[in-house]
Amino acid sequence: MAKRTAARRIGRPSKGPRVAIGTRIPEAHGTQLRSVASDRGWYHSETAAALISVGLRHLQEATAPAPGTDALMIRVPQTDGQRVRDIAAELDWSYSDTAAALIAVGLRHLDELPAKSSTTPSNPAQQELPLTRAS
Fold first, then answer.
1. What pLDDT, in 10s, does the model give residues 45-88?
2. Looking at the record, which segments are called Disordered (predicted)?
């Protein structure tokens, strides 16, 4: 009988426990977010989550967000998600508006984003595939 080798895991490495945030951001912010994502080879949700993380480091700059029309569904680390919820409760803002405000702050501090994600496909053709339920 042949020796079994360890099965190779397929797919991207886990980013850890995540929570979903649905938000709407101003169209100008959505355009800038998509540009940043494209420049770095990231997904839009991944970029928004990174911008929220940066925004949390500069919370004192957050102001009530302008009404948004660009809808996003973002999966953020649980710890960031809980911080967003706590801040929303403290400021008496909605969870969605708080996320939008933090994205706006993150966009002002783009220099703090990492240059490249190691979990994003390196083949540009892979990034253009339609998302599936597992995505």
1. 999 999 999 999 999 999 988 888 999 999 999 999 999 999 99
2. 113-135
- Which tokens go with 23? 């938000």
Q: Is the pLDDT of residue 106 over 90?
A: yes
DSSP for 67-113, written as a single string: P--EEEEEEEEHHHHHHHHHHHHHHT--HHHHHHHHHHHHHTTGGGS
Q: How far is CA 35 from the centre of its chain?
A: 14
Look-up: residue for tokens 């949700």? 45
Cα torsion 111, 94, 62, 48 to 10°: value is 10
Query: What CA–CA distance (Å, rounded) separates 31 from 20?
Result: 21
Task: Decide if 18 contacts 75 (C-beta within 8 A).
Answer: yes
Q: How far apart are the first and last CA of the chain?
A: 38
d(CA 124, CA 121): 7
* Cα–Cα distance, 27 to 41 (Å, whole number): 21
Domain-wise residue ranges, the chain? 18-113
Whole-number Å distance between alpha carbons of 23 and 12? 25
